[in-house]
Amino acid sequence: MRARNSFLLLVGLLGAVAAVVAAFWFGTLRAREDSLLQGHRQLQLMAPDLQSVLQRFETLPFVLARQPDLANALAHPSDPAAIARLNGTLQIIQQQAKVGALYLMDRNGLTLGASNWDQPLGFVGKNFSYRPYFHAALRGHAGLFYGIGTSTSEAGYFIAQPVYANGSAGGQVAGVIAVKISLAEFERTWSSSDDPIALADRHGVVFLSNRADWKYHSLHPLREATLAELNHTQQYTGKNITPLQQTPGPFVTLPVGRLGWQLMLFPNQSRVTRVGTLWALAAALLLAFAAASLWALHQRRRRMEERLASREALQQAAQELESRIAQRTQQLSETNQHLETKYHTLQQTEHMLRSTQNELVQAGKLAMLGQMAAGITHELNQPLAAIRAFADNARTYLERGQPEQAASNLVHIGAASARMGAIIGQLKGFARKDQNVAAVDLAHSVRASAFLLESEFQRREALLDIDTGAGAMIVAGDAVRIEQVLINLLRNALDAVEAAPLRRVHLVLSREDDQAVVRIRDSGEGIPEQVAAHLFEPFFTTKPSGKGLGLGLAISSSIVQAMNGQLRAHNRPEGGAEFEMRLPLQTDGGTI
Apex CA 265: angle with CA 260 and CA 268, to 5°? Predict the structure, then answer.
């Protein structure tokens, strides 16, 4: 049975392939016939246009032969005035008639005058006695010829007529007048066609085509006599006439002109193949549809048989299911009891986890309180040092009998005390997450911070240069916090230059686009590479024990970031470190 089904399947596949191949062959045949018929109709529309152009200018040299300037030039070839009048006449007529060139030759083929006499490749003085059209006109007939110009290397259609000495036919032929016409416009017109179009001479040489690689190639191998004739007349001078490498397929042709030309159109074979492919696809789809229908009928029959078998299987399965339900019920009861035991264990574990979580939260709170206490100790140390310095100065002034200076120092002591209160208030604000944002003059904050550290710079014999620039720079923030950052940065710079030969700190305030930039540079040894990565981390310090808790830069960085700014540090190429603080400037409408 299986072997029979395989044989029938193989026969069906072979039949389907044969049907698809037959459809492709029939579709290709029909498409080729249609394309040839359509090509013939297209040639019937193109040929009259080409024929019209060829005939339009045949009377032009005949009429020119009656012009007295031509006969006068032939009679007096050495007269410059006669030749000049001839050149002028031919040039004017050529421009009005819109032809390629007009030129007059004597009986020996020497060109006496031409419309292109004033051009580098003009015909004057050239001898064209080897051209067939010259000999035909010399015998009193119209000379017709197509070829490549030996002077200009431009192809054209040549029409020649005899010029009689007495100005009328029947007399002696004194010379030949010729006109050259360009047919390149037809190539530009044919270029819009997808089908190859060619114009071949009586020898089968293609000289016009919308396929550039076809030009000056023959449709078939040429005989030796034909090649010798083309070489003698120099019809295609400079071109090696060889057969086309790829022989064109079926084509349609129509005769054009009086030189045995053939206008040919080669229907695009890809279109023919495409149509044949469409026929083959249509046949394949029909066969696939028929096969799918047969398969669906076969499957429907099998489904009916399977449905009956399934009904019997369901009845048997129902009986087996009842017996298994009883077994599963007993197993579920045992599993439920086991789950209740596990649930009780999970509740105890959850209670233990919650207790552990509360202890961890409490430990986190204690750690935060420790960090805050260390920060308060660090931040209050600066105004306490200032109060001590001002108190010493006030006592000195009182001993010297200078109460005004002593009173000034007492004012500064009061301001430092107020500052301690402000710092404590700000730390409380941190705990409450409050924000005291106002417009702050950054130059004033710089001067105030420098003033608090002035005595310490003097004590350590360090020089502090401040350049606040011109104009106010207003930022949105907290003045106390900004001064807090500046004092931290200046104290760090002062510590950095303590062991340096030149103890100098330079603070520069500048504006860059929409930001105020404070740069604090020192003449110290710079930031070690292993320290730079941890510079702004809490409790990280390189100072000896008792001289720093490692919170200054961490708190400063947090304050600057809270005001949408940036705090960075790097080493300078000329030596020393530079800390850079950037804060957004404030306009009348708010922060930029």
Answer: 160
Q: What percent of the chain has pLDDT over 70?
A: 84
Q: Considering only CA atoms, which of 97, 100, 106, 155 is closest in space to residue 129? A: 106
Structure tokens given for 40: 């013939």
Give SS3 for 174.
strand
User: Chain-centre distance of CA 507, in angstroms?
Assistant: 47
Decide if pLDDT at 81 tops 60.
Answer: yes
Give the whole-angstrom CA distance, residue 509 versus residue 581. 10
H or E element in which residue 126 lies: none
Q: What type of residue sits at position 214?
A: W
Cα separation, 548 vs 529, whole angstroms: 20
Element (H, E) at 192: none
The rounded distance, in Å, linking the Cα atoms of 262 and 284 is: 42
- Residue 324, pLDDT > 80, answer yes
Average pLDDT over residues 565-573: 92
Strand partners, 179: 102, 159
- DSSP label at 222? P
Q: CA-to-CA distance for 12 and 73, rounded, in angstroms?
A: 88
- Quote the tokens at residue 478: 């907290």
For residues 123 and 106, is the Cβ–Cβ distance under 8 A? no
The residue ranking higher by pLDDT, 352 or 560, is 560
Q: How far is CA 62 from CA 129, 529, 565, in A?
A: 19, 100, 95
Task: Measure the CA–CA gap between 76 and 82, rounded to whole angstroms.
Answer: 7
Structure pTM? Answer: 0.44
* Long-range pairs for 272-276: beta carbons < 8 A, 24 or more residues apart: 272/28, 272/31, 272/32, 272/35, 273/28, 275/27, 275/28, 275/30, 275/31, 276/24, 276/25, 276/27, 276/28, 276/31
Whether the CA torsion 328, 330, 331, 337 is positive or negative: it is positive
- The whole-angstrom separation of Cα 568 and Cα 270 is 70
98-128 confidence digits (pLDDT tens) = 898 999 999 999 999 999 998 988 899 999 9
381: left (phi over 0), alpha (psi -120 to 50) or beta: alpha
Q: Which residue has the higher pLDDT, 281 or 35?
A: 281
543 pLDDT above the threshold of 80: no
Taking residue 77's Cβ as centre, other Cβ atoms within 10 Å add up to 16
